Amino acid sequence: MSTTLPGRTPGADDEARAKAAAAAKAHAPPDAPPAAGPHPPIQLPRVSARRPVLVALVVLIGAMLLGVSVGPADISLPTVLSGLLGHLPLIHYHSHTSALDWDVIWEIRLPGVVLGGMVGAMLAGGGAAYQGVFRNPLADPYLLGVAAGAGLGATIVIVQGSGTDLNQILPFAAFAGAVGAVVLTYLVGATSGRRASTASIVLAGVAVAALLTAIQTYLQQQHQPDLQGVYAWILGSLGTASWSDVTLILPYVALSAIVLFLHRRLLDVLRVGEEEAGALGVHAARVRLTVVAAATLGTAAAVSVSGLIGFVGIIVPHTVRLLSNASYRVVLPVSMIGGAAFLILADVVALNLQAPAQIPIGVVTAFVGAPFFLFLLRSQRTGVL
């Protein structure tokens, strides 16, 4: 059926145009590309992190209760729960926990659990952020020299300081060394006045870490009586945690966690490459600098009070990817929560496996992390990043 315009009848010109159009269509190549037009906007797929986050929170709560209730002093879980409920505001609950048990819970166990959770969250979150920024599935939060800088700062204080001031100065020296190492890495990585590329930053981090480690080794050889203190700090420990340590790093941890959480979607964009991200309007260099700065700040604060605890930044993010989703909208928040739970459980093992002696927590994470690292190297599933 044909349709004609009002006041007009089809004529010879219309028939000629119709025949020309039919002939052109018949002679057109079958795989001719469609006419050029505006590209549809690329949108990230919808990803829900609600269920993984809820599961991780349940695991974290269980780990915290276990960490508070397990120890040399025999305090049962109901006693711990009764004491915690009795001291919660706005809840009028009469606790049957004795004053001695509550002192053990509040002054000894709970600070270690809270500090372990904060340190684990920062190490796991920093590892996930570094892996996203550098697009390297085996990157960890120590990639740019944080460990070497913190170790050098702590070594200088240990071999030069003594007395009660050591415990007060050591965290600040380790923090300054860690931040200074990353700043030096960026200065070295930015060559010829150009902004640092991903490869140049990583190579600069390797060089800076080697240099600072060499200086640290030299200092250790010159002050052999202090080697035990240096090695004890390097292996990590949460056994002497206090509420002052928690309040000391809380502002840095909170700021770092907020910045990383707000950049989780941009980390997904960076997964496609810097040029593609730039085509989508994302300033890759600016995002990389912001994320690295936030991850470094949180990691430096964590190691300043805990020592160098390894493998957390590799174990937890990859476990999250293998069990849930590769999107950083899931990986980043769940890694932080899972990292907190993992380090709390590792601390429980370190404190109780050979009680009353304490195993360095870095030894426990290495026993778990080294086989996991070898598994990642051999597994084809490493490509989930």
Question: What does this 3D model show about the protein?
Answer:
The structure is a single chain. With about 375 residues, this protein is an all-alpha fold. It has 15 helices and no strands. The protein is globular, with a radius of gyration of 28 Å.
Question: Which helices and strands appear, and what pairs or packs with what?
Answer:
Elements: H1 12-27, H2 50-69, H3 77-86, H4 99-134, H5 146-160, H6 165-189, H7 198-222, H8 227-235, H9 243-262, H10 264-270, H11 274-279, H12 284-306, H13 312-323, H14 328-352, H15 361-378
Distance between the termini: 57 Å
Helix content: 55-70%
The Rg value, from CA coordinates, equals 28 Å
For the largest beta-sheet, the strand count, sense and barrel status come to: none
Estimated share of beta-strand residues: under 5%
> What gross morphology would you assign?
globular
Query: Structural class of the helices, strands and pairings?
Result: mainly alpha
SS element count, helices:
15
Number of strands: 0
SSE order: HHHHHHHHHHHHHHH
